[in-house]
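Hi V.,

You were right to ask for the full record rather than a summary. Here it is.
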Amino acid sequence: MSTIDTQISPVGSLEVLSKAEAAALLDESQAGLREVFRKCSLAVLNCGSDKDDIKSMMNLHKDFDIRVIQRERGIKLDIKGAPEHAFVDGKLIKGIHEHLFAVLRDILYINNEINRENSVFDLQTSGGITDAVFHILRNAGILKPKQDPNLVVCWGGHSIGSQEYLYTKRVGYELGLRAMDICTGCGPGAMKGPMKGATIAHSKQRGTSGRYLGFTEPGIIAAEAPNPIVNNLVILPDIEKRLEAFVRAGHGIVVFPGGAGTAEEILYILGILMHPENKHAPFPLVFTGPKESQAYFEQIDQFIRQTLGDEAAGLYKIIIDDAQQVAAYMRDEITKVREHRKSSSDAYYFNWGLKIDPIFQEKFIPTHENVANLQIHKNQEPHELAAQLRRAFSAIVAGNVKLDGITAIKEHGPFVIEGDASIMQKMDKLLESFVVQQRMKLPGTKYEPCYRIKS
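Predicted structure:
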């Protein structure tokens, strides 16, 4: 594979680093900070890649390196062995250029302000975690105080069929025509499609300020490299803070077909909306896909009803093969969100009023021991069961595409997920359908399950 060496200067931000910040990025012994920066930067440079295997990506680019050059008049990034497809006529594509400095901005901010000793953010408390998420988004320039609610979060898989992808574009287009902005996990598939459709619609409406927000985290960015349309990239420290950023910043959620990661997201939002303190707060949630996806959503709906109950199923609306209806419904429901935020004096740009139970905020590290200790049984509140199931699916995502998870599976074998027999049978059936439909990995890749279901 052809590569290019180059040096680049910041675009609009981070023109100056302190000596301590530069030293931290150069210090290979500092809690892996430099290696995190290197991996995230390589993922950004691999925009448009057709691979979701971080180990193969790292092996393919063993010689890649990126370092900060500290100068009195500012900084530069010295890049060695960058993939040639990130350049046009030898010059780095502007969007990728911006994303590299977004990575630098967020990694430094999280290291220096969020995770440092004696930080003002108490990450052992629910309020402290929410404050940290708020400040990361504010530091990234995401929060817009004088803008009416219009941000639609779109969730769905990176490995979807061509008809499903075209449908995500149609939905994005209809949302864009109604002046909605898009926020996704920033990768390909159901994350790229809505942004692409909205871009065309915004252009038709002569809009010049369309926002295409991409929220990711270091463990997932390599498998879901930022797509070219993302114009605001944010790196959150972990999956839990990433998910909280989605629901705090967004005004409604559209869910397209996907695999284990999409199931994790569904369980996360349902667990939050089922909390008694959130029952009267409007939060539009739509499951949608083309007619080819109807069976998929029937399976998802059945799984939710059989595990969390009909109350959970009443929190979302399923719309099949009707992009206009999805967009119109979201427009009308977000008007209700605006009125509720206004009457409760809550901010339009950050949903402070949403109650998120600590079990959804605490960082879950998917080790074999932690997975084995999950409490997946019906003898608990539905929102608590949703939290346990969310963690199980999160472990499967880690085993599929995250480097630490892949390494753990290679060394110790599949994760063993255990719980009540009735729940395990339904979970096994749902996961098997994901495998058959090639929703676990990109097509063309033989999938070896990273989990074993035990009842």
